Amino acid sequence: MKFVQLITRLVRGGAQRVALETAVDLAARGHEVELWAGIETGAEGSLWAEARARGVTVREVPHLRRAVAPLHDFAATAWLHRALRDIAPDWLHTHSSKAGIVGREAARRAGLRRVAHTVHGFGFTPRTSWIARDLFIRAERRAATVTDLLIFVAEADRRTAAGLGLVPRGRALLVPPGIDLVPFEDLVRLRAEGEARRRALGISPDDVVLGFLGRMAAQKNPEALIPLWNRVRAAEPARSLRLLMVGDGPQRTELEGMTDSGALWVGRQEDPVPWLAAMDLVLLPSLWEGAPLTVMEAMAAGREIVASDLPGIRGLLDHGVEGQLVAPTDRDAWVSAVQAQLARVGAARRAGAETASGQAARRRALASFGRDQMLARLRELYATGAR
Question: Are 164 and 157 in contact (CB under 8 A)?
């Protein structure tokens, strides 16, 4: 069969990783596959080079941009209409809100037989105005009418879609994203890699490292970590605490200027695994999420986790058993949650072990979050179709 995987931007992110891995898997099984994306990149880095290196045919979509820009959006839709009509794929699979809306409109005009869309989150967020939200919902409803498979990475998003009337003919399917579990399987090696990163950064064995890994932008809410870290340090003067910030984005420069030498900023890293292993406590204060891969990876690494109590994260991590979930904007609750973990993560590191909740999180991740499970489910859906 012939497939087109379409996404708004091919930056480093969870949705982009799903689209790329799906394309690689299908190509390896003898299908004709192309991966299409807009040309915008960002501080988080790009997957264009990796896609080409792994043998995926990639194509840049002119005018496809993340922000709402009517002239560009109409031009992108027209370009996609012509391109889809010319190659006539058996499946168009769109990812992310903008690519999903313009791609499915182009598919309608081109008369494609099979269309899939994965919801990695919606184009509207808690910060979206009601006017923009209404426009997005109307566009999603129209797109749903030509969608054969509407796939969700999080159950919470599936419920939201059902409530808004976005689900086509009952074809709302849950396919959680998956991660490559191979780097996490050898726990001894994983610990050694983490210790090596700590030594390279001058972190002592007695230091407790609070860590963040991700895009430093509004959604991920990294600005909440600076006052959090300062408050925890003030409340725990006897402990040696370090803050390890891994990633890049539009907020990095400003935030880095607000910290002292106790905070370590290492920028974007190609391999997140050893950096997660170097952390004692992984913090994810996001304001909204789908099913974040960082949480899955931190769980697979056996890390103690404090994350925002959001529906998508709640579906991955059992509060009180595999980590702690806190209301995103409750600063006092965040301080209390972090303080409660300090003694146990410090003792675990000195013992060369993981905390009880870290062990529970690791067991769940290794059993449930494998990339192969995700890819097998997608192949099954493509094979059965919907029409």
Answer: no
